[in-house]
Design brief:
The complex is a heterotrimer. By secondary structure, chain A is an all-alpha fold. Chain A has helices at residues 2-26, 44-50, 55-58, 73-80, 88-98, 119-124, 130-133, 150-159, 166-169, and one strand spanning 105-106. Chain A has two domains: 1-34; 39-70 and 105-169, no CATH class. In chain A, α4 (73-80) crosses α5. The longest helix of chain A has 25 residues, at 2-26. Classes of the chains: A mainly alpha, B alpha/beta, C alpha+beta.
Chain lengths: 171, 732, 237
C-alpha cells in the first residue's frame, strides 16, 4: 500500500519533471497575442481591400527605411476630415488628435532587439508585403499569420539565395 | 548554460505574470502625431552640421541624430579646418548633453557656499534675482561693481557680452583662459607688429622643429595640425618630413618626433638663439629673407655672440654636437618650420623665448611660404594680456570693489590659486554662474542659471587658428533641449530687457537666434543674393560660412623697430636646495584644462603616454625615482612653495631627471559624479612669478620636492591585458 | 558551412608613421558601438571594455628614449584562433573576411578570448550602466550586450551594412572610401585606412602592399586582415 503510493508519487513527479523540461526545451514561447484588440477598430479590409489603397501609401517608409512606419495621427485625420467624419471610430481618432495624443497601437509583429530587419531590402527584392504579413486586405483586425522564428527567415533566405551570414541580421 | 537557464526562468516568470494578469505581452507601436519634417525618414538617422565649442579650435562637426536623440559626433568633411576628422574630446561632447548630473533648472543657494545645497527655482525667479542685484548697482550708480568672467569669446557672443557690459556701464569683462594664446599674440605684436596668431603649414614642411608646441594634444588647432602632420609624414610621394622636438618632458607630440631634445626647462629660448647664431656663423641663413625683413646678418651675429654653442649647451643640458647637427639640418632643409609652445611660453623668460623661435623662422626664410608660417585668417581681436586683467580683477575683488560677478566657465578650477582668484571670489557678495553642471565655480555661486548643452545651442564658432581662409562655423540645436535650461546669450538679453532703459535698447533683437542671423547676414553681404532665409538654411546645412580666400593681403614681416629677443636666464619659484625638482604642469590629452573631466568616455580613455585611467599622477624619471625610493604606483607628496598635493607616481622614461610633471584636468570638487573628488589639481602647486614685480603666467617656473608616502597610490593603468608585446616581435 | 562568396574582403591598414597615439579612435569606437563605461575597479581587474586600444612601448633609456604607439583592434584573421574553439558557433568567419561574433548565440565560455593572441575580445563581466539620460546616446543599430557575453570589434558592421543597402539600392558595388569604421573616419592623421582588399585598386589594398607593411604576430600564422606600416626612420633621420 505504502510502496504503491510512493511509486505513484514518484511517477507523478517524474512526469511533471518531464513536462516541465519539455516545456523549457521549447522555450522561449511566444506569448504575444496574435490578433490583439487595437485602440481604434481600424480595418485594413476597408482601407486596403474595399478601397484598394496601396500598402506604401500609408506605410511609406517601407521602401526606404528599415522600419515600415505607420501614419501620423495628422495623416489619418487629413483624410477623415472628409471621409466618414461621424463614424464612432473616427470620433475616437479625432479625440486623440484633439488631446494631442498619439494612438497607442498594439504591435502585432515584433522582433527581438538583436535582430535587424530592414523592410526596404525586402521590398526592393520584390517580396510582396503579404508574404510575411498575410493578406491584410481581408482582415478587419490584423492577425499575425507567421511565426517569426529564425528557421522561417532562413528558409526564405535560402530559397531566394539571399545572404545567410549571421551578421546580415544579428549584431 | 547559466545565462540560458536565467533566460528561461525569466520567460517563465513573465509567462506566469501574463497568465495571472491577463495583460497583453505585445508592445505598443506609437505613431507620430504630426508627420516628421521633410527629409526625415522614420528609422533612418539624420545628420546635422554644427560646430564644436569644447576647445577654442572650433572644428566642424556632424551629429548623427536618430529618433530625436543625438547618437554620435563626427567631423564635418566640408569644414576646411578639420576635414571630417575629430579628436577624442570633440566626440565625447555628446555626453555633456546627456550627462546624468546636469543642472535641470535654475538654482538658488540655500546652504553655505561650496556645500552644494541649492533650492530649485523658476526662470522668472532666477532672472528676477539677477536683475534685482544689477538694478541695485544701477541705482547706486556703482555699475563698475559688476564683473563678467568668461573664457575668451568670439563672434556674436563676444559682441553680445561686450554690448551688455558697455550698456550696463562696467568695463570689468575678463576673458581669461589658462591656456589662452595671449603669449603668441604678444610675441607676434612685438616681432611682426601685428597681434595675429600664426598658421603653420606643417603639411608641406620638410623639417619641423617644435619648441614645446604640443599640436597633437591641444596647441591652437590639434585636429587640423594632426591632419597636417599625417600629410607631412606620408602624404608626399618622395618626401617624409622630419620632426625634432625640444622640451624637458616628452609630450604626446614629442612621442611622434624623430629626435627628442630634453632641454632644461626655461632654456629653450636661449637654445633657439644658439641655433640662430650657428646658422648665422655658418652662413646657412636665407639671405633674401633677412633683407626682406630688414635684418642684417653680420649685425645679428654680433648681437647674438653671447649665445655661443658652448654656453647654450651648458644652459640647455644638451650635447654640443646634437645642437649643431639640428641647427644645420634645420637651416639646410627647406622648407623648415619652427614652432613655440606653451611649456616654453609659461616660463619667466617665456615671451622672449617665443620670439627667439620666431626669429629662427625669419632666418630660414619661411614666412608666408608653403611649408612655413602665415598669419592666421581668424580674428585678431583676442586678448593679449588677459592675465594682467585677471590680477587687476582679483585686486578689485579683494578690495571689495566688486559686488556682483557673473561667471561662465569654471575659473575656480582652472585658475591657479596663487593668483588669489578663489580667495577673492569668495569675498564677492553675489555670484551668478551659467554652468550646466555643478562645477567648482557653480558650487560657489549664489545663483545658477544653467546654460544649454552645446548640442542644444545656437551659435557661431570662429576657429581660434588653423585656417588661412576666414571661417565661421555655425552651431545649431540638434535635439530639443532636455531640461528647463536657457542659452547664456538669451539670459544676457533677458536680463538686459529686465533692466530696461538703455540696456533694453542696446538689444533690439527678439532672440539670440535673430541676432546671430543678422550678424551672418552682414557677413554674407549682398553676394548671398535674394532670399537670406534660403542662404541661411544652406549655411546651416553646410556647417558654416567658409570662404575660399587664401588669406590674401595679410603677410608676416619682421617689424622695423622690433628688438632682438633676449630671453635671459629663467628664474624659478622655490629654493633649489629645498625644492630640487622642476614642476611642469601640462594639459591632459583627455581633459585639457579640466573641462573634459566630467565626461566618462574621457575618464576611461587611457592617457596615451602612461595608460592611466580615471586618475591623475606625477611623472618621474626612473633615475629620480630610484634616488627618491619611489616605485610605480606609490603614493607620493609633491610640495612646492605654494602648497602640496598627494598623488600616485608614474615612472616615466621620457622626462628629465630634474623635472617632474603633473597633468591638468582632475581634482574637481564638483562637475558631476565622474569628475568629483577624482585625482588632484596641480594648479594648487603653481607659484606666481614676476618679472620686474609684474606677475607673469609662468606656470612652469615652480620648483618642488617629492617624497614617498606609501605604496598605496591606487593607480590603475590600461595597458595590454596580456603584458606588453616585445617591440621587436611586432617589428616596429 | 555553406560556401559563400562575396566581392568584398574588408581589411585595414594602420600607418604607424602617421599615428600619434591621440586616442580619437578609441573614443570613436566606444561612441559608435555602445561599448560599456568601465569604472576604475573594473579596469584594475583587467576588464576594460575598449574594442580598440593603443599600446605604448618605451624603447631605450633616457635620454635616447623613444615611444611607439600601436593601435590594436580585432585583426579579423583569416585563420582565426578564436573561431574553432567556440562551442556554440557564436564566433564564426564571415564571407567578407570578418570574424563575426553573434551576441545572441554567445553563452560566455570565454574560450575565444583566451585563444586570441591579440587580446582584443572583451567580456562583459558586469552589466554596464548608462545612468539616465546617458542611455539616450546608445545607438539603435547595435545591440547592447548583456552581462556574460563576449564582444569585439566588428569593423563597424552596421556601417558596412548601411553602405551595402545604399549601394544595392542603386545597383552598384560599394565604392572605395564609401564605408569607414568610426575609428578610421575620425583619425586626425589618417593613419587608419579601411577598404576592400579584394579590389586591388582600393586605397587600403594599395597601401597594404607597401614595403613598410607587416602583420601583427605574423609568425602565428593567423593571416590578419590588418596590415601595419612601419614607422619610417623613427630612430634616425
Amino acid at each position: 500500500m505504502k510502496l504503491s503510493w510512493l511509486i505513484g508519487a514518484l511517477a507523478v513527479v517524474a512526469v511533471a519533471l518531464f513536462v516541465v523540461l519539455a516545456w523549457m526545451y521549447i522555450l522561449p514561447m511566444d506569448l504575444r497575442d496574435r490578433s490583439p484588440v487595437q485602440p481604434i477598430a481600424f480595418s485594413h479590409k476597408v482601407h486596403a481591400g474595399t478601397n484598394g489603397i496601396q500598402c506604401l501609401f500609408c506605410h511609406s517608409s517601407a521602401s526606404k527605411s528599415p522600419v515600415a512606419s505607420i501614419p501620423a495621427v495628422a495623416e489619418c485625420r487629413a483624410c477623415h476630415l472628409f471621409i466618414a467624419p461621424d463614424a464612432p471610430e473616427i470620433k475616437k481618432l479625432m479625440g486623440y488628435w484633439d488631446r494631442k495624443e498619439p494612438i497607442p497601437w498594439v504591435r502585432v509583429y515584433s522582433l527581438p532587439d538583436f535582430v535587424y530587419f530592414p523592410h526596404m531590402m525586402h521590398v526592393r527584392a520584390g517580396l510582396g508585403c503579404a508574404r510575411c504579413h498575410g493578406v491584410v486586405a481581408t482582415m478587419d483586425r490584423i492577425t499575425r499569420s507567421v511565426k517569426l522564428k529564425m528557421g522561417w527567415c532562413l528558409d526564405c533566405h535560402r530559397k531566394h539565395k539571399a545572404s545567410i551570414d549571421c551578421w546580415t541580421c544579428h549584431i | 548554460m547559466k545565462r540560458r537557464t536565467f533566460l528561461q526562468l525569466g520567460t517563465m516568470t513573465a509567462a506566469a505574470s501574463w497568465l495571472s494578469g491577463c495583460r497583453s505581452a505585445n508592445e505598443k507601436l506609437i505613431p507620430y502625431l504630426t508627420p516628421p519634417d521633410e527629409g526625415v525618414t522614420p528609422g533612418m538617422a539624420v545628420y546635422y552640421a554644427s560646430s564644436c565649442r569644447f576647445c577654442p579650435a572650433g572644428c566642424g562637426i556632424l551629429v548623427r541624430v536618430s529618433e530625436g536623440r543625438a547618437k554620435k559626433i563626427e567631423g564635418n568633411p566640408a569644414h576646411p579646418l578639420n576635414r571630417g576628422k575629430l579628436c577624442a574630446r570633440g566626440q565625447a561632447v555628446v555626453q555633456e548633453l546627456y550627462h546624468p548630473d546636469r543642472v535641470t533648472q535654475p538654482l538658488k543657494r540655500s546652504g553655505p557656499r561650496g556645500s552644494g545645497q541649492f533650492t530649485r527655482i523658476s526662470w522668472e525667479e532666477g532672472l528676477a534675482l539677477l536683475t534685482e542685484q544689477l538694478g541695485k548697482l544701477q541705482r547706486e550708480r556703482a555699475t563698475d561693481r559688476l564683473a563678467l568672467v568668461t573664457p575668451p569669446l568670439r563672434g556674436t557672443l563676444a559682441e553680445l557680452a561686450a554690448g551688455f557690459m558697455r550698456s550696463f556701464g562696467s568695463p570689468r569683462h575678463l576673458s581669461y583662459e589658462l591656456l589662452g594664446p595671449d603669449w603668441l599674440r604678444t610675441a607676434a605684436r612685438r616681432s611682426f607688429g601685428q597681434p595675429s596668431l600664426p598658421y603653420y603649414d606643417i603639411a608641406e614642411t620638410r623639417y619641423l622643429l617644435s619648441f614645446g608646441a604640443d599640436f597633437v594634444e591641444y596647441h591652437l588647432s590639434p585636429v587640423q595640425y594632426g591632419f597636417a602632420f599625417g600629410r607631412m609624414r606620408q602624404g608626399r610621394d618622395t618626401v617624409r618630413g622630419h620632426f625634432t622636438y625640444v622640451g624637458g618632458r616628452m609630450s604626446l607630440t614629442a612621442a611622434s618626433a624623430d629626435r627628442w631634445m630634453a632641454a632644461r626647462p626655461g632654456s629653450e629660448g636661449m637654445l633657439a638663439l644658439g641655433i640662430a647664431r650657428l646658422i648665422l656663423a655658418e652662413s646657412l641663413f636665407d639671405a633674401g629673407s633677412l633683407t626682406a625683413n630688414g635684418l642684417r646678418a653680420d649685425d645679428l651675429l654680433r648681437r647674438l655672440e653671447a649665445y655661443d654653442l658652448d654656453r647654450v649647451a651648458h644652459l640647455s643640458g644638451l650635447r654640443q654636437d646634437v645642437i649643431a647637427e639640428v641647427a644645420r639640418e634645420f637651416a639646410t632643409t627647406r622648407p623648415a618650420l619652427a614652432m613655440a609652445g606653451e611649456p616654453v611660453a609659461f616660463q619667466t623668460n617665456g615671451p622672449d623665448a617665443v620670439r627667439a623661435v620666431q626669429l629662427l623662422n625669419v632666418l630660414v626664410g619661411n614666412l608666408n611660404r608653403p611649408g612655413g608660417i602665415y598669419p592666421d585668417a581668424g580674428e585678431t581681436t583676442g586678448p593679449e594680456d588677459s592675465f594682467a586683467e585677471l590680477l587687476s580683477l582679483v585686486d578689485r575683488m579683494l578690495g571689495d570693489r566688486i559686488s556682483v560677478v557673473m561667471v561662465h566657465g569654471d575659473p575656480v578650477h582652472a585658475v591657479p590659486p596663487a593668483t588669489g582668484f578663489q580667495e577673492a571670489l569668495a569675498r564677492v557678495p553675489f555670484i551668478a554662474s551659467f554652468s550646466s553642471l555643478l562645477d567648482d565655480t557653480a558650487l560657489q555661486a549664489d545663483l545658477v542659471l544653467p546654460d544649454h548643452a552645446a548640442l542644444e545651442s545656437w551659435g557661431d564658432v570662429i576657429p581660434l587658428a588653423g585656417t588661412r581662409e576666414p571661417v565661421i562655423g555655425l552651431m545649431q540645436p540638434v535635439v530639443t533641449p532636455l531640461y528647463d535650461t536657457r542659452q547664456f546669450p538669451e539670459v544676457l538679453m533677458a536680463t538686459a530687457r529686465g533692466l530696461g532703459g538703455t540696456m533694453a535698447a542696446a538689444f533690439p533683437y527678439q532672440s539670440y537666434l535673430e541676432m546671430l542671423k543678422s550678424s551672418i547676414k552682414k557677413r554674407v553681404g549682398p553676394a548671398g543674393g535674394g532670399d537670406f532665409e534660403v542662404v541661411w538654411v544652406d549655411l546651416l546645412r553646410q556647417g558654416g560660412l567658409f570662404k575660399a580666400n587664401n588669406g590674401q593681403g595679410k603677410s608676416l614681416r619682421w617689424a622695423a623697430g622690433a628688438t632682438l629677443p633676449d630671453p635671459g636666464e629663467p628664474r624659478f619659484a622655490g629654493d633649489e636646495k629645498q625644492f630640487p625638482l622642476h614642476l611642469q604642469v601640462y594639459p591632459s590629452t583627455a581633459f585639457l584644462d579640466g573641462r573634459g573631466a566630467p565626461l566618462p568616455w574621457l575618464q576611461q580613455l587611457p592617457d596615451p603616454m602612461t595608460t592611466v585611467v580615471w586618475d591623475s599622477w606625477v611623472e618621474l624619471n626612473p633615475e629620480t625615482a630610484v634616488w627618491l625610493g619611489i616605485s610605480f604606483g606609490d603614493l607620493v607628496e609633491v610640495t612646492s612653495p605654494q602648497g602640496s598635493l598627494r598623488l600616485p607616481a608614474v615612472i616615466y622614461p621620457g622626462i628629465r631627471p630634474d623635472t617632474v610633471a603633473i597633468p591638468l584636468g582632475q581634482g574637481h570638487h564638483g562637475g558631476g559624479r565622474y569628475a568629483k573628488g577624482r585625482g588632484a589639481n596641480p594648479l594648487a602647486l603653481v607659484a606666481l612669478m614676476g618679472i620686474n614685480r609684474e606677475p607673469q603666467p609662468a606656470w612652469n617656473a615652480t620648483m618642488v620636492r617629492v617624497t614617498r608616502i606609501s605604496e598605496k597610490g591606487e593607480l590603475v593603468t590600461a595597458g595590454n591585458p596580456q603584458g606588453s608585446y616585445r617591440s621587436e616581435l611586432i617589428e616596429i | 558551412m555553406e560556401k559563400m562568396t562575396s566581392p568584398y574582403r574588408w581589411g585595414m591598414v594602420v600607418d604607424l608613421d602617421r599615428c600619434t597615439g591621440c586616442g580619437a579612435c578609441v573614443v570613436a569606437c566606444q561612441a559608435e558601438n555602445n561599448v560599456g563605461i568601465c569604472g576604475k575597479r573594473e579596469i584594475a581587474e583587467g576588464r576594460d571594455m575598449h574594442w580598440l586600444r593603443i599600446e605604448r612601448f618605451w624603447v631605450g633609456e633616457y635620454p635616447n628614449v623613444r615611444v611607439r604607439f600601436l593601435p590594436v583592434l580585432c585583426q579579423h584573421c583569416h585563420d582565426a584562433p578564436c573561431e574553432p574553439v567556440c562551442p556554440v558557433y557564436a564566433s564564426y568567419h564571415n564571407p567578407e573576411g570578418l570574424n563575426g561574433q553573434v551576441y545572441n548565440r554567445c553563452v560566455g565560455t570565454r574560450y575565444c578570448g583566451n585563444n586570441c593572441p591579440y587580446a582584443v575580445r572583451v567580456f562583459n563581466f558586469y552589466s554596464h550602466e548608462w545612468p539616465k539620460p546617458l542611455d539616450n546616446q546608445l545607438s539603435p543599430d547595435i545591440t547592447v550586450r548583456p552581462r556574460g557575453v563576449m564582444e569585439k570589434c566588428t569593423f563597424c558592421i552596421q556601417r558596412i551594412r548601411r553602405a551595402r543597402e545604399d549601394a544595392e539600392g542603386e545597383g552598384r558595388k560599394i565604392r572605395d572610401g564609401e564605408v569607414q569604421p568610426a575609428c578610421a573616419q575620425t583619425c586626425p592623421t589618417e593613419a587608419l585606412v579601411f577598404g576592400n582588399l579584394a579590389d586591388p585598386r582600393s586605397r587600403a589594398a594599395r597601401l597594404s602592399r607597401s614595403p613598410r607593411g607587416f602583420r601583427l604576430l605574423e609568425h602565428l600564422g593567423t593571416h590578419p586582415s590588418i596590415t601595419y606600416l612601419k614607422g619610417g626612420g623613427r630612430e634616425h633621420v
